[in-house]
């Protein structure tokens, strides 16, 4: 792993500071191949370093300064050893917002943004003053809770996580983006205090919990297993539905979710049917949706309203 505290990159340098030459040099140095993922990584790095969009770099045209070349060299060396580009540049985009991003929390996936947008769609009402209490279980860097608050500023929004480092990152993101979110350090697998985060029920609960059993680690890419936090990826046992069971149990038996409340869960593409089976038939509604790649990815359910 390169010395990330170094302030100056080292040669060899590109033959010129023109965009085409610099880009080719960066790709070689970073060990990137010819793929859509590599193109996306290069664009993110060059956007960050130049402070310009791809089109602006072409039309201006952009020439790399000495300090920009040094920064590009440092970033290329980090990518070359497998560090995810979002961690290398320190930021990532989610739901139109720019978040700080590092190895204390997962890198946001497009499927999580799809979960957010569908949940927002399902709580829209003609009345503009229908403020809700929303909870993000396993908040990580705070993307779901902060993005929700940015779209619905009148809602009371909470995020919880078991990892203090992730919560520090989430709080920094909330402060920088001007979103008032209450964050809590809580292990939902343990009994919950009556005066804690679940003292009152929530109208909406969102979660993208850990669901990968340890046995699957060997089948995953090193850019994920070597860099992203294990506690956000893997369950401690072979029960991949562990967190879904706990969340649904809390909603059903411990008053986590208000009557008529919405539960929205991101799942492994092979697990949505199993998660649906965990939701009691007494609930008002439950369904699953595919992501934009055509994979079953999301489960939504409505808690029943009380009957007279």
Detailed description of the structure:
38% of the residues lie in helices and 17% in strands. Strand 8 (285-290) and strand 9 (296-302) form a beta hairpin. Mean pLDDT is 92; it is low at 1-6. The chain is built from 12 helices and 9 strands. With 308 residues, the protein is an alpha/beta fold. The protein has 2 domains: 19-89, Helicase, Ruva Protein, domain 3 (Orthogonal Bundle), CATH 1.10.8; 104-302, Vaccinia Virus protein VP39 (Rossmann fold), CATH 3.40.50.
Helix content: 25-40%
> What is the fold named in CATH at topology level of the largest domain?
Rossmann fold
The unreliable regions are 1-6
CATH top level assignment of the largest domain: Alpha Beta
Beta-strand portion reads 15-25%
Question: What does the largest sheet look like?
Answer: 7 strands, mixed
Total count of strands: 9
């Amino acid at each position: 792993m390169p010395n990330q505290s170094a302030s100056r990159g080292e040669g060899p340098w590109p033959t010129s500071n023109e965009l085409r030459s610099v880009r080719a040099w960066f790709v070689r140095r970073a060990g990137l191949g010819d793929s859509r993922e590599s193109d996306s990584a290069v664009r993110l790095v060059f956007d960050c370093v130049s402070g310009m969009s791809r089109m602006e770099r072409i039309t201006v045209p952009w020439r790399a300064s000495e300090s920009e070349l040094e920064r590009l060299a440092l970033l290329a060396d980090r990518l070359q050893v497998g560090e995810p580009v979002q961690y290398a540049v320190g930021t990532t985009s989610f739901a139109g917002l720019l978040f700080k991003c590092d190895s204390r929390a997962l890198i946001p996936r497009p499927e999580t943004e799809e979960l957010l947008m569908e949940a927002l769609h399902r709580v829209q009402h003609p009345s503009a003053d229908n403020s809700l209490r929303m909870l993000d279980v396993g908040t990580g860097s705070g993307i779901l809770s902060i993005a929700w608050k940015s779209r619905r500023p009148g809602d009371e929004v909470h995020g919880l996580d078991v990892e203090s480092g992730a919560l520090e990152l989430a709080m920094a993101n909330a402060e920088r983006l001007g979103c008032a979110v209450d964050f809590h350090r809580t292990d939902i697998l343990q009994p919950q205090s009556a005066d804690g985060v679940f003292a009152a029920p929530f109208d909406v609960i969102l979660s993208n919990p850990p669901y990968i059993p340890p046995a699957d680690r060997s089948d995953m890419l090193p850019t994920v297993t070597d860099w992203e936090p294990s506690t956000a990826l893997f369950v401690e046992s072979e029960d991949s539905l562990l967190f879904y069971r706990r969340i649904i149990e809390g909603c059903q038996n411990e008053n986590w979710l208000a009557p008529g409340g919405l539960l929205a869960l991101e799942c492994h593409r092979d697990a949505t049917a199993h998660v649906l089976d965990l939701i009691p038939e007494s609930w008002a509604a439950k369904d699953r949706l595919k992501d934009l790649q055509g994979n079953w990815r999301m489960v939504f359910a409505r808690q029943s309203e009380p009957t007279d």
